[in-house]
Specification:
With about 280 residues, the chain is α/β, with parallel strands linked by helices. The chain contains nine helices and 14 strands. It has a single domain, classed as Protocatechuate 4,5-dioxygenase, Chain B (3-Layer(aba) Sandwich), CATH 3.40.830.10. The longest helix is centred in the C-terminal third of the chain and has 15 residues. Belongs to the DODA-type extradiol aromatic ring-opening dioxygenase family.
Length: about 280
């Protein structure tokens, strides 16, 4: 019997401080990493590496990029030294091309914090090959969805596909030291989950008009678009979803994540991805 397909994941990576302050979401991701079978490689799409034409990180040992400023010095000492995966990068480029998306290898770029910060919780040993596919410079959920669809076959080949973003992302309202959740952030997160549970892809793609206070939750779209990469990557299995509760940090950043696809195999038993 062939191994089950990996799920695809949407992970809210929040602030770079998530690396040092795991809150609720960090341990939840750690448990998820322990439940999932070990992937042969991980492919991440993050809004912190965005290009007009498709690029795939192909270096054998990409460096950890600290692409942020104004945070404690300790944060800049962190490294996530997972190996690269040039062979998987070639597979990604081939699949994108067959889907009508020309892509090129980039062996010079490093990994941005949208990739390495959540992976520090999901796979803290940093021993699984990790590469990125650049997020397309677009406001269209449909375009990002198609990137995920193109790479969906990799899930059957031991590759974990992750869209890393933020379920809500209004940095203008960020309240450092204030952990009280604003009701609009929770309402928006609940609306997204309810649409996922209902299998309403049309509503999700049209979230900006239909979701409560969507523009307030996302003044710009880029941090929600990785959700559509994860949904597309799940293929027909996307409605088999689990919500991984992460709470709300800084008052406005929902840290919920989602897993799409069949249940992961833990030992000889089949266990749900989240309670």
């Amino acid at each position: 019997m062939s191994a089950p397909a990996f799920p695809s994941l949407f992970i809210s990576h929040g602030s770079p401080m998530f690396a040092l302050l795991p809150g609720i979401a960090g341990p939840a991701l750690r448990r998820l990493g322990e439940i999932l079978p070990r992937p042969r490689a991980i492919v991440v799409m993050s809004p912190h590496w965005m290009t007009r034409s498709a690029e795939v990180l192909s270096g054998p040992a990409p460096e950890t990029i600290h692409d942020f400023g104004g945070f404690p010095a300790e944060l800049y000492t962190l490294s996530y030294p997972a190996p690269g995966a040039p062979g998987v990068a070639a597979e990604v480029i081939g699949l994108l091309g067959r889907h009508g998306i020309p892509a090129v290898a980039n062996d010079r770029a490093g990994r941005d914090h949208g990739a390495w910060v959540p992976l520090m919780h999901l796979y803290p040993e940093a021993d699984i090959p990790l590469l990125q596919v650049a997020q397309p410079a677009t406001r269209s959920p449909e375009v990002v969805f198609e990137f995920g669809r193109a790479l969906a076959p990799l899930r059957e080949q031991g590759v974990l596909l992750i869209g890393s973003g933020s379920l809500t992302h209004n940095l203008y309202e960020l309240r450092r030291g204030d952990e009280r959740a604003d009701t609009y952030a929770t309402a928006f997160a609940d609306w997204i989950w309810n649409a996922i549970e209902a299998g309403d892809l049309e509503a999700l793609l049209d979230y900006r008009r239909r979701a409560p206070e969507a523009v307030r939750a996302h003044p710009t779209d880029e941090h929600l678009l990785p959700l559509y990469f994860a949904i597309g990557a799940a293929g027909k299995d996307w409605q088999q979803a689990a919500r991984i509760a992460g709470g709300v940090t800084n008052g406005v950043l929902s840290m919920d994540s989602f897993a799409f696809g069949r249940h992961a195999t833990a030992g000889s038993e089949t266990a749900p991805l989240a309670a």
